[in-house]
Structure formats: C-alpha cells, structure tokens
Specification:
10 strands; about 250 residues; alpha+beta; disordered C terminus; globular
Length: about 250
C-alpha cells in the first residue's frame, strides 16, 4: 500500500528543447497513461489542481519550484509555464542567474542534465488499484491526482532517493543517518522560530518532508541494522508535517 504522508519522487522524461539565448528549457516532467517503476499510471488531470493553486500563473507565493536533485536549497530557476497535454506534464523553465542557476545552465548546454523528476505527495482518495492479469504484479495503481511540489533537473532518471540508498550500501550508513537527523533538527528549529517570509517557511516545510522521507528510506532498507545506529539523542521522525499547526503557533 502507498504511504500517503511521504514526500515522493518519480523519474520523468528528458529534455524537449532548449533556448540558450533566453536561458529557457522545455521538458516533460511526467508522462500520462504509462505504468512506471512504482507500478503507477498517472492520468491526465492529476496535476490540474496543483497547477491552478500553485502554478506559474497562480497568485500563490508557494509556487511549484524548479530545483536540482529535489534539493530545496538548490533552486536553479523558475517555471514559466506548467500545463497538461495529451502526452504529459509539459513545463517551460527559465534558469536563474545565481551560481547554481548558471551551473545548471552550463550542464544543460553540455548535455549533463538530461532528465527530470517530480517531487509530490499521493492523495489517498485519488489513487486506486486496477486489476489486470496481463501485468506482472496483477494490476497497477491508477493515480488521478497528486499534490505537486516541484520539478527537478537530474543527471540521471532518479528513482526514490537513489543517492541515499546507494550510500546506505556502503560504509557511511551511520554518518548519513546522523547528517539527515541533524538537518531535520535544524529545519524544525527554523520552522519553530517562524522567522522570514511565508515562502521561506513553505520551503522549509518541503525540505522537512523530503528529509523525513530520506530517513525513513534509510530505516526501511535494512531494518535489522537500524537498531545499531548511534544517533545520540533520539530522533523523532515526523510521519506528516502539519503546516496549519506551525501557523497557529506563530500567531
């Protein structure tokens, strides 16, 4: 069964076009009506509500972000348009002129960035199992709506927290868990202090969701070893972050 509280990532399509003069790229962030590695089939309309509420043309200050590797500290530009067509979620992004934006611009030109991935959350009432005896798993999940947070440029088609899983297989498992736990602690402190704009607090919330998912991935991959991790003070892994609770505390 899907975990509806977690921040998820999903590999997407490659680049469709690039305009170097305008520093713009055109990409498909998701494709409809295909069963992916997560056994999901995303249907047209799945992103409509997110686009309406937080798309490029919305008035929201919590817009769908243009990131690198799903890192909320690594914003490389902004989405100029997000729209669904018959193929999938088509996006046009403009690269920023910051150091990270310029680095991404060069990586696009050199063909280093070739694919993209979305960061999202499943909606419990917008996903259902479809029986299909022709499929290896006996069926698939039909996804009619997700909550879209960001679209990321990735060097390779990223599956769920691929880099975290790779590190876990090596000798740095404890160090990785400790680093993630400390990052979570710092983000929680920033949210509790409530300093900065509403947009900054939203970005901290998204970072917390992503870090929490990474830590849970670490714990679930080799559960027999988790009890041996020495993280110092116990770490509270938040299953779901309640933005409304934070806002209420700030009032």
């Amino acid at each position: 069964m899907k975990d509806f509280n977690l921040y998820k990532t999903k590999a997407a399509s490659d680049i469709k076009d690039m305009d170097s003069d305008k520093r713009q790229v055109a990409v498909y962030l998701s494709t409809f009506d295909t069963i992916d590695a997560d056994n999901d089939m995303i249907k047209k309309g799945a992103f409509a509500k997110s686009i309406q509420e937080r798309g490029a043309q919305s008035t929201s200050n919590r817009k769908i972000a243009f990131l690198r590797h799903h890192d909320w500290d690594w914003q490389i530009g902004k989405w100029l348009s997000l729209e669904e067509d018959d193929k999938g979620l088509f996006a046009v992004g403009e690269l920023g002129r910051s150091t990270k934006g310029n680095d991404a611009y060069l990586d696009y030109e050199d063909g280093i960035i070739r694919e993209h991935s979305i960061g999202f959350q499943y909606m419990s009432d917008k996903i259902r199992w479809i029986d299909d005896s022709t499929k290896e798993e006996g069926g698939y999940w039909m996804v009619s709506e997700v909550k879209l947070y960001e679209g990321s440029a990735v060097t390779f088609g990223a599956n769920e927290h691929t880099n975290v899983v790779d590190v876990m297989k090596g000798e740095n498992r404890v160090e990785v868990a400790d680093k993630i736990a400390k990052e979570i602690e710092g983000v929680i402190k920033g949210l509790t202090n409530g300093k900065g704009t509403d947009e900054r607090l939203f970005e901290l919330e998204m970072k917390l969701k992503f870090l929490n998912a990474k830590l849970l991935t670490l714990a679930k991959t080799e559960p027999q070893n988790v009890k041996h991790l020495d993280l110092g003070e116990p770490v509270k892994v938040i299953e779901a972050f309640d933005w409304n609770t934070v806002i209420n505390k700030l009032k």
